[in-house]
Amino acid sequence: VDFEDVIAEPEGTYSFDGVWKVSFTTFTVSKYWCYRLLSTLLGVPLALLWGFLFACISFCHIWAVVPCIKSYLIEIQCISHIYSLCIRTFCNPLFAALGQVCSNIKVVLRREG
Fold first, then answer.
1. pLDDT of residue 65
2. Element (H, E) at 105
């Protein structure tokens, strides 16, 4: 984030050049040192925390999520064969018959006026 992005004077309103320069320097130096201080104090602990968190997520994904999904897909495959057989046996003939019944329907539109 740059100084001009945070402190922007509108068109036609300007402070003294000295105030602007001191403000710019103060902002830049304080941002620079605050970032260095925070990264020194919190960088290693947060890196450790995020490393631990992503290790836990990876562990759960590898040892729990993927095996559950694979197991589900194996079990659902058997059910899908039975479901497909039922659809082909009962629904396909029914809808074919309904299609034959409705195939001779004709709609005539007349404009009255």
1. 96
2. none
